[in-house]
Hints:
single chain; 6-stranded mixed sheet; 3-stranded antiparallel sheet
Amino acid sequence: MFVSAANDCQFFTDKIGMYFSVDSFYSDTGYYFNVTPQVENTSGNILMDTLNWIEVGGYFIAQGGEKYICLGNFSNIQMTLVDSNYNTNGLAPGAYYYIDDISVIDCTASSINEIPALEFQLLNNAARHTLTVTSESISEFTILALDGKKVKSQYYHKEESKIEIDIGSLARGMYLLQVMDKRKRLGYKRFVRW
């Protein structure tokens, strides 16, 4: 997953992780979950960046049956390293982070032979009329709304290395662009129609 610290909170911390479980659970203390996350940010690496997205990731061996992911701080206050936001005037107490692009990837031996992702460049990820996409080969694109509904797509009989996509008819908002080549490799990038 990727995290970015909010501008309007008093503290930053290093304790952000992921706990995978078979069943849902709740905190009876009301403050923290008394479980050990399988994946956690590197201890001592305080996540202070309010401008960029910082990757938090790792590996774990599933026990079988995991269906839920809980994200957050799994340590009590004594075990949580914090740093102060030096502009604390009127800020909300606590640490607050935006979280994006959460993914779980199978890394078993059977998944090693999967088709790699298609690399492509989206030259303007915020546009009003046209998106410009470049790649070694493009055979199809699909634009998806954030709820997963297909908004627009086009297939190219001959592979292209550069395409222009008219987005002028789309409603303002955020979308997901999926690009595919003849080998069925897929790549994804978000963009904003403004």
